[in-house]
């Protein structure tokens, strides 16, 4: 809920808004007639031209401390706005905002109404001049919308440009700002709109995009840093929090990983690792919900699990083909020589064609905004998921310890009685071990240590069974592709060499698994 404190013309707000990037130029007449949206409109859409200039010191002192200072011409006159950087979760922006009237339209920190923020900014700037960083010029069409529950949301369609001294970037986005009520309704409305318009959650404000143009933001993270997993609770929170306190925080942080992975995929859809990490984040969240399930509303938990599983499974075939493409390069390198620099050129062409064909639905889903609808729906369901009343007062640490020990005991018991010939049971055991590891990564401060040999078993089993699974999937896909060209003798020859190489890998993995399981299963 947005909280507002007023004092004369001054207003301080905890701003909560959902930013959706428009993937296609909007048809305004269609947008404002979207069902459910049209029914809740409380005012006729009004269009204004907004020109805003952002200022800072020559040394960017405000930026370095996380503040922005903006001067904008509004219908009632000039307004100065100070914003904190706040937080962003896949388009849902939360940040402090201070507004003050500005008689002459020139930057002047001494005219800020709030004594505290004025003092902070004056100290930061230390009498240095404020110079323009960038200007935004856009046409905004906005209206007020109200839900039957009383939640009020301001909708704003923005079209225009961000300008620096040497560069320009287009603005084409929709902002939904929560004026009063529940942020859950904000997500519901965004989800509904996404079914009628191609949108994507916007993780960057106009100001931040301008900073990127000015090269005043850090470069992209390394893959290791980008996907580094951390516990979702601090040690203090883990020790003292009840389930009613901890579960909403854990689910929020868990879904933040999903959103982050989705953003990476949307920015670079051609990178297979991003899709893989999105599916990992979905499985991690599913494992967390499964672990917490005795404390959760059963109906809500089952519905969310189904949604997450369907989303992840939708892209399983593409992930298999992405992995095939990586391993195919290993095959090529294994057979390349001075006499045969290209070991399987016909197969390489075939693989490239099939990878492009398999990735096309992903690009379409992102470009049409279909995946955004899934994201917002799962986000809403995660936010709705509640703790049962009779479990809320229980400490997370007590619940987690008993639950984890039960899971680990089940894993060890099944491991001792599972033979190497029972591939299906080994696969289920692998999945159970993966779930335990995901939960341990997410809730480690609240969980007891488990035997190192058990953790080692989980990791090794996951690796070996995963390798065997990859071989089987890759052979299946390749046989299907090659069978479409039965008359191509050279392709068949290359495919035979590839099949032999895969069979060697399968034999090696089976030997490793046999040695490992013979040594390990009796020690669990």
UniProtKB/TrEMBL annotation:
GO terms for molecular function: inorganic triphosphate phosphatase activity; metal ion binding. Residues 13-214 form the CYTH domain. It holds the Pfam family CHAD. Residues 240-522 form the CHAD domain. InterPro entries: CHAD_dom, CHAD_dom_sf, CYTH-like_dom_sf, CYTH_domain, YgiF. This is Adenylate cyclase. It comes from Anoxynatronum buryatiense.
